[in-house]
Design a protein that fits this description.
single chain, mainly alpha, Glycosyltransferase, three-stranded antiparallel beta sheet, 12 helices, 9% strand, globular, Cellobiose 2-epimerase, cellobiose epimerase activity
């Protein structure tokens, strides 16, 4: 590794640590609802807090995941009570005690707002509970995670793959929540990706062979059904039999997948799946760098040949990790330079400098912030927090000469 690469890594790691500890973490601490539990569900672009807004269960799971990993990364014991606060809200309110599973959303007081059971939502609860178990050693959290694993495998699958949306008592219903771009998808790449992500962490903290077998299945699904080798992309929306429904590049999901699949491969440590999937992740990173990395940042998506040029907060965060992961694998400096360049864009345009704020939801292609909420059920510390965790860990590892 040359001096320039070492310097870029040192700056990237140090600045992401400062962003995590000095900005993202304090912001989400202030969102804690001391009176009714959980965390407040909405902060507008105007920075007006709505304490009575709906609390998305995905948001709460992601906050639980965030505080658990913030403690793991920074080692500050003052972080742990925030993770426990999110865990208590998940356990006491987000879980359906009668039918099983996690609700879609709750009212501000913790009563049920939307009782939809979505596989995507179950997966994020598993992801969060696995991380909380890792820092707390609370067996109850692991037991809840395995209960949700059994539920997904028992009620949310068919002979082709993973289904999407269900009523409160697990009767299938249409998938409005994860369908867009004018299609109604019975299966999605996005849900499959986050089941993989959740199962990867559940296997990492438990070593359970049932989870490993399902990871094998999902990796095979990505290689055989999701990955389009001719277009060098993942397909996004599918019918029940995993036939693609639309001509769509989701640049953010592609670069996110490139490193999440590699992380799964590293956790499994099985050469058969390395041979199957590692060439795919290398191709994804190269393709995204070639076609979507423009103006110091990443485009959002391309539908039927037309680019969406908004710069979305989570797409930029995932591209930093994805390109850093590609640099680790290839030692090609162009990927490290891209990660550092996008981080500069994030600092300049995505990080909201106003007091009491965090990151903007999105900007236009020139970096001008757009009027979107700072917090809502999808706007959370999962992507930008995870970017910080990954960059801190990866830069430290590379600079120490381990990889």
């Amino acid at each position: 590794m040359n001096k320039n690469e070492m310097m870029m890594l040192a700056v990237l790691g140090g600045e992401c640590r400062a962003e995590l500890a000095g900005h993202i973490l304090p912001f989400w601490k202030q969102m804690r609802d001391e009176e009714r539990g959980g965390f407040f569900g909405f902060l507008g672009y105007d920075l007006k807090l709505d304490k009575d807004a709906v609390k998305g269960c995905i948001l709460n799971s992601r906050i639980l995941w965030f505080f658990s990993n913030a403690y793991k990364t920074l080692g500050d014991k003052d972080i742990v009570p925030y993770a426990r606060h999110a865990y208590d809200f998940l356990k006491n309110h987000c879980l359906d005690k009668e039918n099983g599973g996690v609700f879609w959303s709750l009212n501000a007081d913790g009563t049920v707002c939307d009782s939809t059971k979505h596989t995507y939502n179950q997966a994020f609860a598993i992801y969060a509970l696995s991380s909380y178990y890792e820092i707390s050693h609370d067996r109850e959290a692991l037991e809840i995670a395995f209960g949700l694993f059994d539920l997904i495998e028992g009620k949310c699958t068919d002979d082709v793959g993973y289904l999407e949306a269900f009523t409160r008592d697990f009767r299938p219903e249409s998938n409005e929540k994860l369908s867009e771009n004018g299609v109604m998808a019975e299966k999605t790449m996005n849900t499959l990706l986050h089941v993989l992500e959740a199962y990867t962490d559940l296997f990492r903290v438990s070593g359970d062979n049932r989870v490993k077998e399902r990871l094998h299945f999902i990796l095979n699904q990505f290689a055989a059904k999701i990955w389009n080798p001719e277009r060098k992309r993942q397909e996004v929306f599918f019918d029940r039999n995993l036939n693609p429904l639309i001509d769509l590049y989701s640049y953010g999901h592609d670069i996110e997948t490139s490193w999440l699949l590699d992380k799964c491969l590293a956790v499994l440590g099985e050469e058969e799946f390395n041979r199957l999937c590692s060439p795919i992740t290398e191709t994804i990173a190269a393709q995204i760098h070639k076609i979507a990395y423009k103006k110091h940042s990443l485009l959002n998506e391309c539908e039927r040949g037309t680019d969406n040029t908004k710069r979305i907060w989570w797409v930029q965060a995932e591209s930093v990790v994805g390109f850093l992961n590609a640099f680790e694998k290839s030692e090609d400096e162009k990927y490290l330079a891209a990660a550092a360049d996008i981080w500069e864009f994030i600092k300049e345009h995505m990080v909201d400098k106003r007091e009491g704020s965090e990151w903007f939801w999105c900007t236009d292609e020139d970096g001008n912030a757009m009027d979107e909420p700072i917090v809502e059920p999808w706007k959370c510390p999962y992507h930008n927090g995870r970017m910080c965790f990954e960059v801190i860990g990866r830069t430290k590892k590379m600079m120490s000469g381990i990889c």
